[in-house]
Amino acid sequence: MTEEISLKEKRFNKLITVISIAIPLVVALLFGYKIPNAKPLSFLPPIYAGINGLTAILLIAAVVAIKNGRQLIHQRLMTTNIILSALFLVMYVAYHMTSETTIFGDEGPIKFIYYFILMTHIVLSISVIPLVLITYSKVYLDDFEAHRQWAKYTFPIWLYVAITGVLVYIMISPYYPY
Description:
- Helix 2 (44-67) packs antiparallel against helix 3, helix 2 (44-67) packs antiparallel against helix 5 and helix 4 runs antiparallel to helix 5 (144-172).
- The chain has 5 helices and no strands.
- The chain is mainly alpha-helical.
- The chain crosses the membrane at residues 12-35, 47-66, 78-97, 112-136, 157-176.
- It holds the Pfam family DUF420.
- It comes from Flagellimonas lutimaris.
C-alpha cells in the first residue's frame, strides 16, 4: 500500500468513525425532541417503509449486477441505496419529531416476535452505518478485494435492516392513531 493511499485511508477511517458515532447520537437526540405545535407527519411511515422495500430490491439488483460484471450499474445502484438510506433517515426523524410513539397493541407470541424484529432492526441499523461506509470507501481507495470482503458482511446486514424495516411498519401500522 502506498503512502498516499494509506493517508487517504486514514482520513476515510476518521470520517467514517465520526459519521458512525454522530448519526446515531443525532438521531437519538432528535428522536426525543418534539417540535411544539407541529402537525404530525402521519403520511411519512408508509413512504419510508417503501424506501426500505426499494432499498432491499436495489441491494439485490446491485449484487446481481456485479455478479454479471456490470460494475457501473452496481456502482449506481449502491450509490442510490446510500441516498435512499439518508432520505429514509431524514423522514424517520421528521416523523418522530412531530408524532408520539406508537405502541404495538397485540399480545401473546406476536408481541415478542415484533419486539425481537424491532430490536434487531435497530441494533443492526446502527452497526450497518460504518459497514456501508467502509465498504463504499474501499472502492475509492481502489482496493476492490477489500471491498468484496467487506461487502460479504455488509450486504446481508443491510438487506436484513431494509426488509425488517418493512416488517416493522407492517406490524405496527394498525396501531397508528391516525
